[in-house]
Input
Amino acid sequence: MTNRRQFFKGAAGVVFTGCGLIEHSAHAQAPAARRRQVSVGGRRMRTIDIHAHVIIPEATALMGVRTAPNNASVMAAATENDRFGRMDEWGTDMQALSINPTWYAVERDVATKVIDVQNEKLAELCAKYPDRFVAFASVALQFPELAAQQLEVGVKKFNLRGAAIGGHVNGDELSDPKFDPFWKKAEDLGCLVFMHPQGIPELDKRFKGGGGLANTIGNPLETTMFLSHLIFDGTLDRFPGLKICAAHAGGYLPSYSARSDYACVRNPEACKIKKHPTEYLKQLYYDSMVFTPEGLRHLVAECGASQIMIGTDYPFPWSTTTVDHVLTTPGLSDADKRAILGETAAKLLKIVG
Output
């Protein structure tokens, strides 16, 4: 997808990256900042960003992609200290790191090597900064049985906290039963699966023109399609214990979910599922990227505050005021704010201490 691969060099063989589109401020080095302390109701909060990106150059090189510091997509002077400076400024104590999958079309041997390198390097980074980072394992979902094994190794060997996946695999919906081995493993492990869209190639023509539409509306649209298939195709019925977090606040689904319920009234034969579609929204999880107080209020009303976690899309400033967004949204109780800012993420990601 246009502007997706935005890389910038960090330490320990890691390059920090984001979703693209907003590039100008990512080139600016973060100012030195005292670590912001966030409190709710007089109680200090550990804030956890569920939506933050990295790239492992050694892994991309295995796929023939060179992460060059002079490339236009690389953010100059961006080191891990710059990342910590931004986190401290914004009031983000920890990030849950994910790598957007670009390897779904890669052959099995290469994909295996890519995943091995990425998960090992992610584990090293988290071990180096245990108070700042946890990470999601990468998996080669084009090979579902292999992906299930990679997830188990990632969680049990490398202490990764779940998996980061795309919204489809080479055009195949992840509700297809062939992906059930992966979903079963994720359910058995009780770990979180973070879904981030990767683009909808068949709509590239429609996305041309102004506005960067492949990202601006394409990302939330893909998220909407991903979740809707999991609901209507019965994946969430087959694996009711799944813990899935959707990027971009669940896309458009929470804002128009009642239409899904009414679709089942109009055409019950197309809705062979165990619950009303809107009921599934309350068992899924979402980042908080809705940008306005009314957007966050509505997301809470539709899905529940316990299902929402802050997400910044770092290093790209889609949500530079994420913490304040939660703190200043009217109508949220202190318990709601604590859940969104970090308590839910800490529980799902098994962050203790």
About this structure: The chain has one domain: 6-22+43-348. Residues 1-12, 20-30, 70-78 have pLDDT under 50 and may be disordered. The first strand starts at residue 6 and ends at 9.
